[in-house]
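Cross-check.
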Amino acid sequence: MALKSYKPTTPGQRGLVLIDRSELWKGRPVKALTEGLTKKAGRNNTGRITMRRRGGGAKRLYRIVDFKRTKRDEAVVARIEYDPNRTAFIALIQYSDGEQAYILAPQRLAIGDKVVAGDKVDVKPGNAMPFSGMPIGTIVHNIELKPGKGGQIARAAGTYAQFVGRDGGYAQIRLSSGELRMVRQECMATVGAVSNPDNSNQNYGKAGRMRHKGIRPSVRGVVMNPIDHPHGGGEGRTSGGRHPVSPWGKPTKGARTRNKNKASSKLIIRSRHAKKKGR
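Predicted model, tokenized:
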């Protein structure tokens, strides 16, 4: 999908750059593959805000996406659709027995293409298989961290990882961030990169368009009062100081906060921060 810009006929259209979605399906999603979605506005199960600057936004219908790809049968791509719940596009596929499902649409997947999941299948966009049957060097997305749990890595628009090697029962993958990590070879992954790579190049043009997405304004700590934020107060304009912190005193702006004893740390061969250590 290409980007489209607008003539500055209004202030909100000056500089506006959006994704051209004219080739996507224009109707409603398959009702059996949708369910209601209630707004959480950044609250957790106790009702407390755990993510700030969320709330409002247009009402959404959740599309049930098949991240597991457990059905071992060939399917045909019926259409490519927009999904308001994610940055990537989704594809409606129909199996030979008539069953339908939504999957993440990879780049270069077109209507009428055939996709299949199996132990060892062709290396074509949309096909899914475990790393044990995959050739080294394959570009993949929707990668499982635990066999049978469903894809968790590389699901956002334009993201992908590369299968770079095998080590015992593990597969080594290089992520877009530069991180090199291991996952079990029994884990499933889908061939190709995720669709909509131009998503990050959009310019929404006005604050209201972000409010439609459920994102509220963010106020910098340095313009607050001392009671509201550790960066607040001071005479005149001040920066965040020598030790920038969050409102709760945790180091921010690049400081490492990851727990060194985290169980998955032993599976990370090379950190995504490794290239920054020379600074």
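The helical segments are 207-212. Residues 207-212 form the longest helix (6 residues). Passed to J.P. for a second look.
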